[in-house]
Structures are given as C-alpha cells and as structure tokens.
Write a structure and sequence with these properties.
heterodimer; A: 215 residues; B: 399 residues; four-stranded antiparallel β-sheet; 47% helix; elongated
Chain lengths: 215, 399
C-alpha cells in the first residue's frame, strides 16, 4: 500500500492534468487550480519538516563538534533572529520601515548579491579552461567565442569597421548566434522535450517509481 | 539731443508694430485649432463581437475598424486619444464602461463575461474634448468549449509519441534486445564512486534547486536511486544537501530503498539527506562551504540549475572532485561542460535512470523517444527544403 497509493495518486493527477490541457470545459478546468492548491498545502507542511531538519542537523553538528560546527551557531542565531523579529513586527513585517525589512535590506540582500557577484570571477576561470586550444574542437570554440565577444563590444566594431559590411565582427557575431548557436540549442531543446514526455509517461505508468519509494 | 529723442520714438513705434505682428501670428491659428479639436472624431465602424474560441467560457473578443481620424499611433497630433469599450445586455439599454485602449487599437478582450448571456458592445472614440460612438454589435454569448482545437497538433504528436513509447516498452518486455549508445558521463558513475571509496572521502549529490513538481528534479532523484545503490555496494559515504523540503523527503526515501535493495539497509542514515534553505544563493553558499570543508572526491549535479551552476561546479573543480553534471537547462549546459568532467546534455539526464538500471521496460521507452526524433527530423528537413525553394506558407503554395 505504501508504494501503490503514491503511484495511484501520481497517475490520477498526471492523466487528469493531461486531459485538462486539451479540454477547457468545466469541471475539468477547475482541476488544475485544485491540484495546484493541494501541492502548495503539502509544500507548506513540508516547510516545517525542512526547518526542523535544518535545526536538528545543525544542533547535532554543534553538539558532536563536527567539522564546521561554529557555522551551526550562525545558522541557529540567524534563524531565530529573523523569526523573533518577524513576530515582533507582527502583520506587515515585510513592509519597508520594519525591523525585519531593515535586517533583510542590510544583511540578507548584500549577502545574496555578494554570492551572485562571485559568478563573474568563476566565469573568468571557467572560460580560461574551456577556451584552451587543446584540439580542433576547442580551437573552433575559442575562435567563435573571441569573435562573439569582440562583436558584442564597440571595440570590435572599430576593429572591423574598414571591412565590407558582411565581414564585420558584429555581423559575423549575429550569424554565429542566429544559425550555429540557435541550431545547436534547438536540437538540445527538442531532445529535452522528448525526454520530458518519455520520463513523464514512465512516471505516470508506474515504470519509474524510485521517487515514490520504489523498487 | 533732438536726433536722440527721434531715435527713441521710432524704436517705440517699431516695437509696437512688431508686438502687433507677433500677437496676430499667435492669435490667428488659435480659433482654427480650437475648432478642429471640438469636432468629434469619426466613430469606429464594423464592431464585431465573438465568443473567444478554445477556452472555458467567460470571455468575448471584440474587434472593430478604427476611426477614420485615427492615425494609428499615440501622438499629440492624433485626433483620437483612445477608445472606450462599452457593454450592455440590451441593444438599447444602458451601456457600462468595460475598459479603455490606446489610439490605434482594433480589438479588446472582455474576460469578465458570464456564460450564456447575450451581450452588446459599442466602441467610443475619444477626442480631446469630444467623442463619438459606434453602432452596437450583434448579440454574442460566451460559451465554454469542450475541446481546445488550437492544440490539436500537440495532441496528435503527443499521441504518436506516447503510443510508440508504449509499443517499444511492450517490445522490450518480450526480451528483444535494444541498442542504446554509450553515455560517457553515466559510464563514469561507478568510477567516481570507486574513487571516493578509495580516497575515503564523501560523495555529494546535488539534485538542483527546484521542487518535486519539476521533471528535471524527478529525473535527478531517480538517478540518485541508481547512484545510491552503487554507493551502498561500495560502502561509500553519500551526502545530499537539498534546497526543498519535499525533495529532501523524496531523496531520503529513494536512498533508503536503494540501500535496502543493495542489501545494506544498515548503512542508511537519515542524516545523509538534509535541508539547507529554499533561497538560491543561500543554498549555493552553504553547499560551497560544504565542498571546501569536506573536500569530496565526487560530486553529482543532477536536476534543474540556474545561475548557481557555475559557482557550485567551479568550487567542486577547485577542491579536485570528479564531477558529473546533468541538466535540462540549455543556458547552464556550457557552464557545466566547462567546469565538470562529464555532462549529461538535455535528454541524457532523462535517459540516465534507464541507462543505469538497464531495466528493459525503461530502455524500451528510450527507443520510443527516437520515433519522436524522426518526426522532428522529417519536419525540419521538409521545412528546410520548402524554405530553400521560397515557400514560406504551405497553404498559399498548395492553393
């Protein structure tokens, strides 16, 4: 039963949503919102599960002095600080001017932006490795990348402004992006779409059941 | 002194004449312009209202021919400043204001209609100070349709694909051997787990940052089942930090089953899977910290990733882990290709569980997928040939 019930629910919901996609007439059109609401209710309960797990794992880490245990204190402190401040501010705790909003603005937001900014440095290091001309394919990638990068900046325009219209870096960049790049990307996307259809069917037919405590 | 007085007098005269001239220039066009703006613009014509097709009812589409005075753009010199859409349930009844559009518009979508009630529509052209109304439309009722005919080709394609997948699944059940090409990234899974076992270091499995309503996450969790089976056999240490509570629960169940199936339920520990945060970069920071502190020997990225893909993969590369990634996000694939040892590109992510499990039923579904590829290839080929011969619209060509 523990295995069959989740699989049956998956199949019923999945096939109903397929029917809803093609039949907009009531009562079918109400099922989509109904199932979405159910998902959000389950997810809302699961958030508690996640929060409790986060606190438990970090309490264990601190108690058993596992690697990185001081960070567990930061997690506990940060978690309760935001929860207490949120309750203290009451309704509308996320509105500008509240303490919760202030903490969000001066702590959370800059930390988030910092993490995202690191991406710029990682792009540089990854590009350096990817663009090394080790073989024929990597050399082609390097040349294409150089052309596209130069074609996207004013310097590239000045560099090739003396060339005939079609041979300027900007035009070559457009061609690379519109044809080889788009063709490659579409091929990948068609493969993904087919893969999703196939995987969905496997799940709905109960062939793929690992996610639901399967074989 | 006299000539000086004379100059002052003549200057005053000139100034007076000049003022009169300027004023007359300013005043002359005013009555003309005012007269133009007080005249109402020509009314919109041919107002037609029809039930919006292929929907669940509750909406009516109204189209009309714009006023003859409407130059089609929002500009000061356009006599028409916009249109008002009016609705009534009786042709001679009181019309309520439904909404407004800008100048140049020739359609409106009434999404607040009730099913099976006759509605009449009028369009009002707005001038600067005056307006003009069209004649009312014919009565129209909003109705719910049983079938969305705009999706008929999607239905046909999905049906062919589904039938071919089911057909090949049945074929594989009969024991017919199916050829599946080698996928280097999946061949390396055992090597990666073996390496971690030899080095005595952990294996990290990152199932992406999306929830269980995403097919890529489900594919990632399914692959986790196969990876967990190998880690159980090798007695390697597996750790799965998740960014969604539901994913945490699913991963936990998956690993538990995999360890039981591998005959090592004793090695399973609930703390192998834990929740960090729903926040994208909070999760990234936490996982990066784990990578740097734990220095894992192998890292799997399987699921849906966004901007965090490169931050995670580069940190994994920095700590010297063997990395196998897979995602259906075309924009993230180049990052994984650059930073990881192996990358499952698009469809390979969805094929991975079948490939690793070697279950004939699952392998059969992969074969069915190929039928879909042939259909796409056929249409791409036909479309390319037609375009090469200058045929842009097949209906026009066949006519």
């Amino acid at each position: 039963m523990r295995r069959e019930v989740p699989l049956a629910i998956t199949a019923i919901v999945g096939f109903t949503l397929i029917v809803v996609y093609f039949i907009p007439h009531p009562p079918f059109n109400h099922f989509r919102n109904f199932f979405e609401d159910l998902f959000f209710i389950v997810a809302a309960f699961a958030i508690w599960l996640g929060c409790l797990n986060l606190l438990k794992v970090n309490a264990d880490r601190f108690y058993f002095k596992r690697k990185g245990w001081p960070f567990a204190i930061v997690v506990w402190f940060g978690f309760f600080l935001m929860v207490i401040v949120g309750f203290w501010d009451g309704r509308g705790f996320m509105n500008p001017g509240t303490t919760f909003y202030y903490l969000y603005d001066i702590l959370y937001y800059p930390l988030n932006a910092t993490m995202f900014s690191i991406l710029a440095f990682f792009v540089a290091s990854a590009s350096y490795r990817a663009f090394r001309a080790r073989n024929k394919e990597a050399t082609m990638l390097l040349v294409a990348a150089m052309v596209v990068m130069l074609g996207r900046v004013p310097f590239g325009y000045y560099l090739s402004s003396w060339l005939p219209e079609g041979w300027r870096l900007g035009n070559i960049t457009d061609w690379v992006m519109d044809f080889p790049q788009t063709a490659g990307q579409r091929a990948i996307m068609i493969g993904i779409a087919l893969g999703i259809v196939s995987s969905s069917l496997r799940v709905l037919l109960g062939l793929e059941r690992t996610f639901a405590s399967g074989e | 002194m006299r000539p000086r007085i004379s100059t002052q007098t003549s200057n005053k005269t000139y100034a007076l004449i000049l003022s009169i001239l300027i004023l007359s220039f300013l005043l002359i066009p005013i009555p003309v312009l005012a007269q133009q703006d007080t005249l109402p613009p020509s009314p919109p014509t041919e107002v037609k209202a029809e039930d919006t097709p292929n929907d669940a009812g509750g909406s009516i589409t109204i189209i009309w021919k714009k006023s003859a005075d409407d130059i089609g753009v929002v500009r000061d010199d356009n006599k028409v400043k916009g249109y008002e859409i009016l609705r009534s349930t009786r042709t001679d009844g009181e019309y309520e204001l439904l909404g407004k559009t800008t100048a140049g518009a020739e359609s409106y979508f009434d999404s607040h209609a009730r099913n099976n009630i006759d509605y009449f529509y009028k369009i009002r052209a707005l001038g600067l100070v005056s307006l003009s109304e069209s004649l009312p439309s014919q009565p129209v009722k909003a109705k719910a349709q049983w079938v969305d005919w705009s999706r008929k080709y999607t239905f046909l394609l999905a049906l062919i694909l589904a039938l071919s997948i089911v057909y090949f699944i049945n074929q594989s059940k009969t024991g017919k051997e199916l050829f599946i090409r080698k996928i280097a990234g999946l061949e390396a899974v055992t090597d990666a787990v073996g390496r971690a076992t030899e080095m005595g270091r952990k294996i990290f499995y990152i199932p992406g940052i999306s929830d269980m309503d995403n097919m890529q996450t489900i594919a990632g969790v399914t692959i986790l089942g196969q990876v967990a089976k190998i880690t159980a056999e090798y007695e390697a240490k597996l750790e799965v930090p998740t960014s969604r509570s539901l994913v945490m629960v699913s991963c936990r169940e998956t690993i538990k089953e995999a360890y039981s199936n591998a005959g090592r339920p004793d090695l399973f520990n609930e703390n192998m899977v834990y929740y960090l945060t729903d926040d994208q970069f909070g999760y990234t920071a936490a996982v990066d910290g784990l990578f740097v502190r734990e220095k894992p020997a192998a890292i799997f990225f399987q699921g849906q990733f966004y901007a965090e893909s490169l931050i995670l993969a580069e940190t994994g590369n920095y700590v010297g882990a063997i990395q196998i990634a897979g995602t259906g996000q075309p924009a993230q694939l180049p990052f994984f290709v650059a930073a990881c040892d192996y990358t499952l590109i698009g469809e390979e992510l969805f094929a991975a569980s079948a490939y690793l499990s070697r279950d004939p039923k699952l392998l059969g579904s992969l074969k069915g997928q190929d039928v879909g590829k042939f259909i796409f290839l056929f249409f791409i080929l036909v479309g390319s040939i037609l375009l090469a011969f200058g045929v842009y619209d097949l209906r026009v060509f066949l006519r």
